[in-house]
């Protein structure tokens, strides 16, 4: 599995690239305005992006989700609560839904608290991308 992270230096928010294998499929998770390193990895690892996923509606996570989706010709996917908060989505997910991208299986986990629409992703039943559920230095 491929996991790449790009952190915004001021907001300390993260955007992610998840891929199944070199030359395979992947997803972009959140958009923090610092996606260039992730886009370089998409090319270097020859990944076909299938979705842009949104964990929650906060501005530091949705800066350019529409631009990323347009670049790859893929849908922006998040919860209906995220759409209700004003983020333009092409598709919605709910707690327990499973999204596939090649050999990646991403199970959607509702994790409200940081925001009412916050979701984490269980990756291939083994790893969790928590987005803003946990913050560096807080536990």
Question: Could you walk me through the main structural features you see in this protein, from its secondary elements to its overall organization?
Answer:
This protein is of the alpha/beta class. The protein has a single domain (2-133), classed as Metallo-beta-lactamase, Chain A (4-Layer Sandwich), CATH 3.60.15. It has helices at residues 36-44, 59-62, 65-72, 80-84, and strands spanning 2-7, 14-19, 25-29, 48-53, 76-79, 91-93, 98-101, 104-110, 119-123, 127-129. The chain has a six-stranded mixed sheet with strand order 1-2-3-4-5-6. It has a four-stranded antiparallel sheet with strand order 7-8-9-10, with no helix packed on it. Helix 1 (36-44) links the parallel strand 3 (25-29) and strand 4 (48-53). The longest helix has 9 residues, at 36-44. The protein is globular. It starts with a strand and ends in a 10-residue tail after the last strand.
Short description:
The chain has 139 residues and is an alpha/beta fold.
Task: Give a topology summary.
Elements: E1 2-7, E2 14-19, E3 25-29, H1 36-44, E4 48-53, H2 59-62, H3 65-72, E5 76-79, H4 80-84, E6 91-93, E7 98-101, E8 104-110, E9 119-123, E10 127-129
Parallel strand pairs: 3-4, 4-5, 5-6
Antiparallel strand pairs: 1-2, 2-3, 7-8, 8-9, 9-10
Mean pLDDT: 93
- How much of the polypeptide forms β-strand, as a percent range? 35-45%
How many separate domains make up the residues? 1
**CATH level-3 fold name:** Metallo-beta-lactamase, Chain A
Structural class call reads: alpha/beta
Q: What level of helicity do the residues show?
A: 10-25%
- Supply the number of helical segments: 4
Distance between the termini: 26 Å
Q: Compute the gyration radius: what is it?
A: 14 Å
Please provide the count of β strands: 10
Runs in which pLDDT lies below 50 for 5 or more consecutive residues are none
Under CATH, the homologous superfamily reads Ribonuclease Z/Hydroxyacylglutathione hydrolase-like
Order of helices and strands: EEEHEHHEHEEEEE
Q: What would you say the CATH architecture is?
A: 4-Layer Sandwich
The biggest beta sheet is recorded as: 6 strands, mixed
The protein's oligomeric status is single chain
Give the neighbour order of strands across the main sheet.
1-2-3-4-5-6
Shape: globular
CATH class label? Alpha Beta
């Amino acid at each position: 599995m491929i996991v790449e992270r790009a952190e915004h230096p001021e907001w300390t928010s993260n955007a992610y690239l998840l891929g199944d294998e070199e030359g395979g499929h992947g997803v972009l998770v959140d958009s923090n305005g610092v996606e260039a390193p992730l886009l370089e990895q998409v090319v270097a690892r020859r990944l076909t992006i299938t979705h842009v996923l949104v964990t929650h509606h906060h501005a530091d996570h949705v800066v350019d989700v529409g631009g990323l989706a347009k670049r790859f010709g893929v849908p922006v996917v998040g919860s209906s609560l995220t759409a209700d908060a004003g983020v333009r989505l092409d598709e919605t997910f709910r707690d327990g839904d499973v999204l596939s991208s090649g050999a990646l299986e991403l199970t959607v986990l509702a994790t409200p608290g940081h925001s009412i629409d916050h979701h984490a992703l269980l990756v291939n039943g083994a790893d969790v991308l928590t987005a803003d559920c946990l913050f560096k230095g807080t536990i």
